[in-house]
Amino acid sequence: MLLVETLLPVTSFAAQIQRSGAVLVSANHYPNVGLALWQFEANKAQLAALRAALASAPGLSIVASSTRAAEPAYHAYATTLWNLDTIDQTTDALNGIYDPGAGYTGAGVHAYIVDTGINPDHPDVAGRVHLDWTAYGTQLADDNGHGSNVAGIVGGTTYGVAKLVTLHSLKALGADGSGTLGDLAAALAYLLAHLQLPAVINLSLTYANYDPVIDALLTSLIIARAVITAASGNIAANACATYPCVTAGVLCVGATTIVDQRAFFSNYGSCVDIWAPGVDIVSMGATGASTTTMSGTSQAAPHVAGVAALYLTANPTAAAPTVARAVVNRATPNRLDAASLGAGSPNDFLYAVWSTVPTAAAFAATLAGVGTTGAGGGTSSGGSSSVGATTTTATTTTAATTSTTTGRTTGPAAAVGTTTSGAAPVAGAARRPGGARWALAAGTAWLAGALCGLV
Length: 455
Ligand SMILES: [Ca+2]
What we know:
Helix content is 21%, strand content 24%. The protein is α/β, with parallel strands linked by helices and 455 residues long. The chain has two domains: 2-72 and 358-391 and 424-454, no CATH class; 77-349, 3-Layer(aba) Sandwich (Rossmann fold). The protein is globular, with a radius of gyration of 21 Å. The two termini are 23 Å apart. 58% of the residues are buried. The structure holds calcium ion. The site of calcium ion has 7 residues, from β6.
């Protein structure tokens, strides 16, 4: 561990990190406890440049690990992402933490993303992506962005539900976000022959008519112990007419908003099994370290896939129907605005916690205090501005597809604000800067770092 004292105006930290060439992966500010934490990834040269630039600041620290981090003993992630924040609790009062519970990481679980491809180079997933199959010649990587956004929700280190899952891409959808039922069937047939367990399969796509071949393949995959999640569709209609969501054994997922209402575009009804966040979801983009913000039941389904992967972390030999039932049974009942859900819909919202939820004090205790002044009390200047969102966003507004083609189910963005800044503070947290405490999915030439301090 390296420790460097720093002194720069709080508001310049994010820019300073980016000027050094390092990749800023998150920024969190907890003004009522005087704590700010920026997480970044940098190579050695970038870290040296950052260290030099911050060389004269007391009360702030850079903590870096020169090796790929081992899985932390305990997982509680400070986050400004509302979608992650909300699924580890039973109300919509966000607390700035996503904590699926100790040991629940998705490590060892294979998550298959049948979509437009996955960006294998994004630092959020680098080293954990396998580009298994494509229906598009030599085009393996994501040429659309939809698949990367979806994959990041399942398993991104920053953006994801199951942060250590192994991701597999099956590119059945083209650059325009649509594909043929034949290509979907081919992808599923490939999966049936090459499935590695434990496994989840996410299908953020819909088609309008029953297809016996695809249904048979899905059933076979479920028997083979793959847990399958699918988007309920984005046409604000009864999901019982939406395939493959309606296929028996497939977890059919509807989309909700930050205020616990059905997203206006989300399909609904008795064929929906569970609800999950699906509006203004920030995740990784198709190129480099870019990010995208997308809305749709396409974004809701991978949250459920991630929670299933968390369950499989601890229950790797469970049958797929057992996992699906566990996920639905674990959901928070009657949390959502019932009037918004649509006729026949269950009122069950995804809950990601399979073990004890920690107290805020327990979370604070896991932070490694470094380079502080006034340990246990700290100093707080108060009134510092919070760091803005760590992402460059682009909202995708692709509508659902119909008829005989399959298509991604990212729908139009709703007019609901994001929570990428001003996250609720960690109540009762000690005034101590945090340390690096996440698993880094980058190569060995990279360092994980956290710039933190009292503000
Ligand atoms: Ca939370």
